Amino acid sequence: MSRVDTTQPDPSVIGNIPIPPFARLPDPVQIFTDRSARFAALAEGHDLAPYLNFLSGLCGVQASIQDGLPDPAPIDAETLARAREHRMPPLDRVAFKADSAFEAAFQRLLDAAVGLEMPSPARAALLRVTAADAAGREAMLQNVLAEAIPFEAVAEHIFVAAALQVHFARLAARLDDKSLQSVGDGVCPCCGSAPTSTAIVNWRRAPGTRFCACSLCGTMWNYVRSKCTLCGSTRKILFQEIEGVGNIKAETCDDCHGYMKIFNQQKDDRLDPVADDVASLGLDLLVRELGFRRGGINPFLIGY
Amino acid sequence: MNMELSRRSFMLGAGAGLAGTSLGALGFGEIEAAHALSIRPFKLAQTKEVRSQCPYCAVCCGMMIFAAESKVEKGKMEVTHIEGDVDHPVNRGTLCPKGAGAIDYIKSKSRVKYPMYRKPGTNSFERVSWDFAMERIAKLMKEDRDANWVEKNRDGVTVNRWLTTAFLAGSSVANEGGWATFKVSRGLGLLQIENQARI
């Protein structure tokens, strides 16, 4: 036996500076419970209070329907190995087919949403989704996954997107976070979706690093700061904030003329990638006037 | 979640306002319009975050330099804060006390921004052009090298060296800069080359 120490040196241990994890998988119940609470807190005194309260209720439903929900079918080893070999996300949103676990979640969500307070157009849309046949539901599902929402049926698709978020969060939670790898700039390593927004996190193991929050499965993945999440350019990045706010900024890129919101959780750790995205709609309205296109995907902000 | 862009722009252009949004479709169009109106008076402030590296030592820690619009000079950006670059593999967001104080280095009143020249016999520096500075340095180097060139040592062995001048180079240059430094200085016969790269 060799007496030479073959341990690989790791200088980061000396200064006790941890390497940030590449990805953090969602806790499918906690993520929606927290979001619901955050929506409710944001609603106080906000111009959009009725909408935020409605979304608080909807996120509450996303959390509560999971109690006793049948487990989704696990991803088979062959698919995982193939995804890994070719640097693809293990959850394939394009090839997604509704299975019984999703159907159960979807039906529960529609049933539970009936109890929420909502304006009549929303209620009518909910009834239309509930009444839709299998083919109609499948079509809506594919629209959401293709991020192409038909203009005349936006409201219906919000409920479908909410159900898909629950299902994909549950799928993602069952993956092994150590096996994930980068699949491209601004693409979720779990499901291949675009982020809703990004956050400078205040986690103990990675204070000050930036994580993108997936718009579909809720996974958070590490992404270099001051770099466009839409086109990967680092050349012409600027940050816009409403004067005096400080913890919510829009990261604009003059190469692709898009922008992505960035929440500084070091300044306020309650900031939620989805709830605060909706509540900071004012920033979108102002940044849009500068000619930038919104890059964050959020079913609660379709049309922006 | 974007709809076909042409269609959306058409709707906005046609005065349909905020139709076709999540809020509008769910029946929250009124508060949406009110919010859009109430946000109007607010102004945007622009900031910048740029990567750089610490100028001090050979570790070359990554730095994130934050800038905001200057309050003194309109339309100009001004450095407001410096911290370690969390994405940099060398320092992962940390800086030593010297690096952490680098903003004072940038804002120092005595910071040298241009080539300065103190004429023989005077007691103050004056600003000169780069051409003047380069020419003056080259001339002095040539004079010194011609006067003190050592071709052979005491035993008659050819050495071709120039011992009366030393070369002080930067510690945070990349490989290419370091290569050029040594090509130039060794080519001139210099032996005393200090690269400050011993950490």
Written account of the structure:
The complex is a heterodimer of chains A (304) and B (199). Chain A is of the alpha+beta class. Chain A folds into two domains: 23-177, FdhE-like domain (FdhE-like fold), CATH 3.90.1670.10; 178-301, FdhE-like domain (FdhE-like fold, Alpha-Beta Complex), CATH 3.90.1670. Chain A is built from nine helices and eight strands. Chain A has helices at residues 28-43, 49-64, 77-85, 100-113, 120-131, 134-145, 154-173, 275-279, 281-289, and strands at residues 23-24, 195-200, 210-214, 220-222, 237-242, 248-253, 258-264, 293-294. In chain A, strands 1, 2, 3, 4, 5, 6, 7 and 8 form an eight-stranded mixed beta sheet that branches. In chain A, helix 2 crosses helix 7. Chain A is globular, with a radius of gyration of 20 Å. The mean pLDDT of chain A is 91. Chain B is an alpha+beta fold and 199 residues long. Chain B folds into three domains: 5-39, no CATH class; 47-107, Phosphorylase Kinase, domain 1, CATH 3.30.200; 116-194, no CATH class. Chain B has seven helices and nine strands. Chain B has helices at 5-13, 22-25, 29-39, 97-100, 102-107, 130-148, 175-187; strands at 44-53, 62-69, 77-84, 116-117, 126-127, 149-152, 158-162, 167-168, 193-194. In chain B, the strands form four sheets. Chain B has a three-stranded antiparallel beta sheet with strand order 1-2-3. A two-stranded antiparallel ribbon of chain B has the order 4-5. Chain B has a two-stranded antiparallel ribbon with strand order 6-7. Chain B is elongated and about 100 Å long.
